[in-house]
Amino acid sequence: MVAVDSQGPQDSAVRMFRRERSIPLRGSAAALCNNLSVLQLPSRNLTHFGVVHGPSAQLVSAAPEGVPLAQRQLHAKEGAGVSPPLITQVHWCVLPFRVLLVLTSHRGIQMYESDGSVMVYWHALDSGDASPGTWSGRILVFDIPAKGPNIVLSEELAGHQTPVTDIATEPAQGQDCVADMVTADDSGLLCVWRSGPEFKLLTRIPGFGVPCPSVQLWHGTVAAGYGDGQVRLYEAGTGTLHVQISAHARAICALDLAPEVGKLLSAAEDTFVHIWKLSRSPESGYTEVEHCHGECVPDTQVCGARFCDPSGSSFAVTGYDLAEILRFSSV
Amino acid sequence: MSVRTLPLLFLNLGGEMLYILDQRLRAQNIPGDKARKVLHDIISTMFNRKFMEELFKPQELYSKKALRTVYDRLAHASIMRLNQASMDKLYDLMTMAFKHQVLLCPRPKDVLLVTFNHLDAIKGFIQDSPAILHQVEEIFRQLTEVKCFFLLCLWQTYGGLSAGEFQLIRQTLLTFFQDLHIRVSLFLKDKVQNSNGRFVLPVSGPVPWGTEVPGLIRMFDSKGKEVKKVEFKHGGNYVTAPKEGSFELYGDRVLKLGTNMYSMNRPVETHMSGASKNLAPRTQENIAPNPLAKEELNFLARLMGGMEIKKPSGPEPGFRLNLFTTDEEEEQAALTRPEELSYEVINIQATQDQQRNEELARIMGELEVTDQPRQSASKGDDLLAMMDGL
To answer: Residues in domain WD repeat-containing protein 54 beta-propeller (chain A) (predicted)?
Structure first.
């Protein structure tokens, strides 16, 4: 295990990470991007993990030390076709009044209560004019009530021509930040939106020939990870590029944020996970980035990575073909 | 998942199969002309026009089991026979080799370079044979057509794909190979594979073409002017890529993945890591009664219907190739093959589609060794000219 720390003034408490007990999975993780979702429940001393295996997704809940407590498998809804449908993503959506678990496949979108026990909504994706295996790039906006299954498709946003890879949101920050959603696609294009009764497209940030599999939004700054290993930070409102990091030697597969402390995590197929500190320079007001920590997961094509606590002092990693969730926490 | 993956999967696995057969034919001292005939017959079957047409149709990938049936037929396209245990081993080696190549491709698009490496080598299997040259008697128009057809298929399918679409193809291939951890002696020896069956992913060497060496943070003002540059320690040991591999008909591919790693002195062996818990999750796919059988049978019938198996008109004696060092080893391997790794022959009796059943049975029946001479298709003779343009 290679752990690399950069020089510079940092809080020494987060300089070193050690490997913690892994959480075993019933099935190995699939070679998808963003293939780990984490729901932190500090009040209940629990963390939920979600990983896509293929035709099934696995949910595991664990105690703080990583002891697995419960697990559940979910499947994509069957339909016509050669083989069982493959799940493309599993993700917890934390809304003001409830948490929903969302499962997507080529057939459609399934929404569950947060523990995966009850499916509350199913939205079928029609193949329509798209030939099998391609996606139209549409973004579907659903109205979610505080309770119950009365979920309604309220809007379809057009902004992308190629399949959408990731969506990031943050609560509206007040007058300073008008942007609260960013979407990314296979061509590397980013669309920045403002939510409301109708969503408004604010900015388009063009790609440069590689996909953008993962995107995050923090205090009006868009953080995007690309297929050529770059991490770029843009000002959400204007699309101005502020930081460019040659972060990885292979395609980035996941980004995550610890918003309270401005920590960004990047993971890529090059087996590395890096942690960065975002800040705004008090003199210039420009976004700045510092490298905090690098971790090598030997011989593992990482496919998902998430912080496990709001302070960014622990994170979890999944890898293609790996039937466990690796955990790291700072010493 | 991508519907453009099958041709790449098929061609590269086919290429690996030829490397392995070539090595075993020499190791078993099969006479040169017989060995060449086997390889030529297989190659001509692979590049048959009707077969290519089916192959290049946009379609989802079928299971490892279904695909193995196609290679079984391909391996028996000539006078050579393989026992089940040897065929199993051959398929294991082919799949692990290509899995390794896909995993280690620097860019998703580089899987095309791997494909070209296989195609370049296939050309080499034919060209060094003086025997086949004088057999070429074909209508020139047909020759050109077949040659152009294959290349057209390749370029039409992959020529205009974006990086995102190649990434999807890569993910589709990796899904096909998920949970396969058979240990291969050659890989273990070369330190390309760990003893737990997982491939070594190096963190040194050239970065992919188009990627920068990691280690730099650049910060800009709102006018786009660089205001700060900071280096950080990435942890790997990377260098700039020297040049890009060629995607042309001829050219330096730069990438070594997909070239022939077998030779006389490096025999092919596999270990069955059946005890490995990593294999457990896929067990259900292999032994559950297969409700997908009908779809897969349709696919197989269409694909194999396009395969014209050439049988010699003369009394050409066949022979049995053994992928193991001795017959006893082969028998032992058959007995001890772990359950979860067994590729059961798809049970065509299980389907209810009588018509499809009969059609497939007819095609499958043609697999059997008979003494009846089939009409010797001269399609195999256009092989050299067809590959000439490659």
So the answer is: 16-132, 133-331
CB pair distance less than 8 Å for A163 and B164: yes
Helix B111-127 with B32-46: angle, nearest 10 deg: 140
Q: Residue A237 forms beta bridges with which residues?
A: none
How large is the average pLDDT for residues B47-76? 86
The mean-pLDDT minimum among B83-87, B107-111, B126-130, B361-365 falls in B361-365
Q: Which residues of A touch B167 (CB under 8 A)?
A: 186, 211, 213, 227, 251
Q: What chain A residue is nearest to B298 in terms of C-alpha separation?
A: A82
Coil, helix or strand for A102?
strand
Q: How far is A9 from chain B (nearest CA, A)?
A: 13
Pairing of strands A56-62, A46-52: antiparallel
Mean pLDDT of A295-323: 96
Q: What average pLDDT does this structure show over A175-195? A: 84
Preferred mutation among B211, B222, B277, B278 to probe A, highest tally of A CBs within 10 A: B211
Does B181 reach chain A within 8 Å, measured CB to CB?
yes
Nearest CB to B235; choose among A2, A133, A186: A2
Looking at residue B310, its pLDDT comes to 56
B334-355 in b/e form (b: 16+ CB < 10 A) is beebeebbebeebebeebeeee
pTM: 0.86
Give the DSSP letter of residue A28.
Answer: P
Query: What interhelical angle do B6-27 and B32-46 show, nearest 10?
Result: 170
The reply to whether B216 touches chain A by the CB within 8 Å rule is: yes
Token pair of B279 as six digits: 């294999």
Contact state of A284 with B1 under an 8 Å Cβ cutoff: no
Residue B308: per-residue pLDDT: 62
Helix (H) or strand (E) holding B330: helix B327-336
DSSP code string of A255-292: EEEETTTTEEEEEETTSEEEEEEEEE-TTT--EEEEEE
Per-residue model confidence as pLDDT tens digits over A7-66: 444 443 345 899 999 999 999 999 999 999 999 998 888 999 999 999 999 999 999 888
Q: What is the DSSP letter of A85?
A: P
CB atoms closer than 10 angstroms to residue B375:
9
A118-122, B44-48, B377-381 — most confident range = A118-122
d(C-alpha B16, C-alpha B252), whole Å: 20
- Say which residues have a Cβ less than 8 Å from residue A39's Cβ, sequence separation at least 6: A47, A48, A50, A92, A94, A99, A114
Q: What is the dihedral of CA B361, B362, B365, B367, to 10 degrees?
A: -110
Please report the pLDDT score of residue A178 as a whole number.
66
Q: Which of B65, B225, B234 is best to mutate for the A interface (most A CBs within 10 A)?
A: B234
Residue numbers in B near A283 (CB within 8 A): none
Q: Measure in Å the smallest separation between the Cα of B115 and chain A Cα atoms.
A: 21
> What residues 2-31 of chain B have any CB closer than 8 A to a CB of chain A?
2-4
Model confidence at B269, in pLDDT bands (50, 70, 90)? low
Mutation pick from A34, A88, A210 vs chain B, by most beta carbons of B within 10 Å, is A210
In this predicted structure, what is the pLDDT of residue B145?
Answer: 56
Cβ-Cβ contacts under 8 Å between A and B: the total is 190
